Amino acid sequence: MQFKDYYRILGVAHDAAESELKRSYRKLARKYHPDVSREADTEQRMQEVNEAYEVLEDPEKRAAYDELSKVMAQGKVGVRKGIAEALAKLSDRLPAMVIDTLREQWARIVKMDEEIASIERRLKLWLKQSEACWRIAEIPGVGPLTATAAVAIMGDAKAFKSGREFAAFAGLVTRQTGTGGRIKLLGISKRGDTYLRTLLIHGARAVLTKAKDAEDWANKLRQRRVLNVAIVALANKMAHTIWAILTRPWAPFRRSPIKPPALPGVFDSLTRSRSLLLEPKHLP
User: Fold this and answer.
1) Is the pTM of this model over 0.70?
2) What is the pLDDT of residues 137-174, one digit of tens each?
3) Is residue 258 helix, strand or coil?
4) Residue 210 has pLDDT above 80, yes or no
5) Could you tell me if 271 and 224 lie in one domain?
6) Which of 43, 87, 104, 234 has the most CB within a 10 Å radius?
7) Given a cut of 50, is residue 1 above it in pLDDT?
8) Are residues 144 and 201 in the same domain?
9) Domain count, the chain
10) Residue 115: pLDDT band by 50, 70, 90 thresholds?
11) Dist CA 250 CA 83 (whole Å)
């Protein structure tokens, strides 16, 4: 069950007085009353407000909730800081066997975190030593995990005839169905390597939701379509870009325009290669 912050629901501070709680509750009750509000989630919000006020108006329930909220600190950093103190407070209420079991489980979690950190250090070292990895790691949304996984899974990038074939291998292309010459596009196929597809989609999600330098075409697509469609489209393009970079050792990923070299014929080929790297094609 997800922990609910009742103070945040009522919009009051943790040290709010009873009068302040009552005033905030009345204000929210009028706002989310079914006869007044026309929002779709009015009933759910009203239930949360009633539940929060029912707990916080009772001094005993509020004291128990405050203690529980300290034990259930959100985030790994908060748990690490408060786990020892929480177990010490619970040692008088719970059997010693339960406390020892909780300590053992926490020790396993700490050990697992250390092993994950060790694996990540090895991957970062490989990223620095492998030219293919650090070249594709320059792509926004492609980190050490995605870069090393893509290089390890692809092997020889030239085994794929095109970027679309590699995207299809990752399950990032649309399924098609139809009859009588009419073709209907469906969702992505979700075939191929699930792990690589997951990394690409999460990387694309981070670019669209967190990064400030998302490309213009992706932002425009996000305005026209739902967020998940834009995320998959960007992940598809990332797969195209990875294939294009790995099959062309002389073509790094870059956003800035390429200056024309001295030889006129070479610039034409560079321009065509840059279009493969930067222009979104065959997006779902």
Assistant:
1) no
2) 888 888 888 888 888 888 888 888 888 888 888 888 87
3) coil
4) no
5) yes
6) 234
7) no
8) yes
9) 3
10) very high
11) 52
Query: How far is C-alpha 227 from the geometric centre of its chain's CA atoms?
Result: 12
Domain encompassing residue 110: 74-129
Mapped onto helix, strand or coil, the DSSP state of residue 187 is strand
One domain for residues 223 and 250? yes
> Which pLDDT does position 178 carry in this prediction?
77
CA-to-CA distance for 104 and 221, rounded, in angstroms? 49
What's the gap between Cα 274 and its chain centre? 28
Q: What DSSP letter does each residue of 183-236 carry, written as one string?
A: EEEEEE---S-HHHHHHHHHHHHHHHHT-S---HHHHHHHHHS-HHHHHHHHHH
Please tell me whether residues 155 and 269 are part of one structural domain: yes
- Burial (CB < 10 A; 0-12, 13-18, 19+), residue 234, is buried
Beta bridge partners of 178: 183
Neighbours of 82 (CB within 10 A): 15
Both 68 and 97 in one domain: the answer is no
Query: In this predicted model, what pLDDT tens digit does every residue of 3-28 receive, in sequence order?
Result: 678 888 888 888 888 889 899 999 98
> Which of residues 34, 53, 72 is at a domain's end?
72
